[in-house]
């Protein structure tokens, strides 16, 4: 005889399986933050693309280093190392997939969450740059987007706000 609990568990597994297979738009839970910095786009780009400086403005990364000897541009690879509580060290390989000098930098990873970070710089006035961070997690399953998507958006936005705060301390008025 099948109990009600077994039927509920079987239905739950069926729903999870369907949600895993259904694909949805990955831009729904994109995290975005914008701020104004008192520096030129050229100076800002030189600073944020220097692997030795990343920990200063993006404190979530414990180490950031070049993974190849190519010059900065599309195809350049980096290694980001995170120290995660309980889990320990996590290494993520990132590639530059879009680059327009002093304007846009897009980094992408094929790691578990498939993050894509876009950094956009627009000169508002001389020595005044609008910096926009945008992070999209490209795992397209409904299960991921409807469960972890909102949480990751919230946590990522907090880290982006922290990064903008750090950059404002580095580039004061």
Automatic annotation (TrEMBL):
<dbReference type="InterPro" id="IPR023393">
    <property type="entry name" value="START-like_dom_sf"/>
</dbReference>
<protein>
    <recommendedName>
        <fullName>SRPBCC family protein</fullName>
    </recommendedName>
</protein>
């Amino acid at each position: 005889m099948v109990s009600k609990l077994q039927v509920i568990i079987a239905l739950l597994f069926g729903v999870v399986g369907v949600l895993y297979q259904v694909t949805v738009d990955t831009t729904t839970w994109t995290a975005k933050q914008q701020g104004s910095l008192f520096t030129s786009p050229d100076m800002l780009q030189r600073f944020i693309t220097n692997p030795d400086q990343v920990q200063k403005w993006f404190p979530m990364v414990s180490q950031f280093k070049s993974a190849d000897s190519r010059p900065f541009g599309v195809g350049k690879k980096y290694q980001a190392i995170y120290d995660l509580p309980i889990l320990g060290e996590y290494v993520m390989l990132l590639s530059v997939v879009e680059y327009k000098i002093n304007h846009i930098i897009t980094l992408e990873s094929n790691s578990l969450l498939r993050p894509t970070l876009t950094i956009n710089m627009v000169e508002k006035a001389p020595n005044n740059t609008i910096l926009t961070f945008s992070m999209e997690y490209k795992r397209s399953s409904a299960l991921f987007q409807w469960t972890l998507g909102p949480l990751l958006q919230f946590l990522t936005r907090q880290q982006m706000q922290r990064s903008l705060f750090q950059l404002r301390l580095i580039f004061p008025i």
